[in-house]
Write a structure and sequence with these properties.
11% strand, 7 strands, 5-stranded mixed β-sheet, 15 helices, 54% helix, alpha/beta, two-stranded parallel sheet, 296 residues
């Protein structure tokens, strides 16, 4: 396991708990020590990763998309041998994954792109795995996939690139679902005259309602302590998958207005005093004499 962040570290623990032997590496020496304390064999370089594994070797990457993953795949291409396999479990762009597969295939090294969903809860309940790659490369690794996933939580979805494509769309759908819940609870909160208990409503909706979901269960947890909730700043980052999903929708001519608008909503949250709203306020003042607020 290369990359021992929140996901990689917990996945390492889950694999060990299910009887697998794991060699663990990260640039952070403390993360390697923590993994070793949990039963992994900690090593400090990629060369040591390759040396510690017996052929046929399987190296799983849990790294940020783009440069870090590209660089690591390139280095592994020179360290591994024909018959070995690289699994990319990060949120890479599926186009990049297709390229990585081609690069490694030229050296006889297998490549699997594994979309992973489960977040910090995956250690306990398992990770949903959307796996792409050649059947003969994927099949030998299924004991790893089934150890990480809950029952029925693993699927070989298609050829190289398919795993990360499916995960990209998964995250785009997640954008829309989160936005819908956010808007609904904002409306509930705005009805102050009704003194609504948002936590109780979230709990209620999880029992028989058509909008019940794991995300709503998490909303119940988030709203349990109003004081703690009030400390959260309304700034929402956007991940690459949301942008890539919208771009794919444009390229393929597929209407995806909900996902697109949810992405734009995140952009707005990142710029609370952006030029656009200021321009609207100024124009309303010009044509209608509407008041506008000024900075204190």
């Amino acid at each position: 396991m290369v990359g021992l962040g929140r996901m990689g570290a917990n996945m390492t623990r889950r694999l060990i708990e299910h009887g697998h032997e794991v060699v663990a590496h990260d640039r952070d020496a403390d993360a390697v020590k923590a993994a070793a304390a949990g039963g992994a064999q900690g090593v400090d370089t990629l060369d040591a990763v390759a040396g510690a594994l017996e052929p046929p070797r399987a190296v799983w990457l849990m790294l940020p998309a783009g440069g870090p993953t590209d660089e690591t795949v390139g280095r592994l291409a020179g360290l591994l041998a024909a018959g070995d396999t690289v699994v990319d479990g990060g949120n890479a762009n599926y186009h990049d994954s297709i390229g990585h597969g081609q690069l490694l295939a030229a050296k006889g090294i297998g490549f699997v792109d594994a979309g992973v969903s489960g977040g910090v809860w995956g250690l306990k309940v398992g990770y949903c795995l959307m796996v792409g790659g050649d059947e003969k490369v994927v099949r030998p690794l299924e004991p790893i996939f089934t150890a990480l996933a809950p029952e029925n939580g693993y699927l070989h979805v298609g050829p190289t690139g398919a795993g990360h494509f499916v995960k990209m769309i998964h995250n785009g759908i997640e954008y829309g679902m989160l936005q819908a819940y956010a808007e609904g609870f904002a409306l509930l909160d705005a009805a102050g005259e009704l003194s609504l208990d948002l936590h109780a409503i979230a709990e209620l909706w999880n029992h028989g309602s058509v909008v019940r979901s794991w995300l709503l269960e998490l909303a119940e947890l988030a709203l349990r302590d109003p004081e703690e909730f009030s400390k959260i700043k309304g700034y929402v980052e956007d991940s690459g998958e949301g942008r890539w999903t919208v771009l794919e929708a444009v390229e393929r001519g597929v209407a995806a207005p909900v996902i697109t608008e949810s992405l734009y909503a995140r952009f707005s949250s990142q710029h609370p005093d952006s030029f656009g709203p200021r321009m609207i306020a100024a124009l309303r003042n010009q044509f209608g004499g509407h008041r506008f607020q000024t900075e204190q």
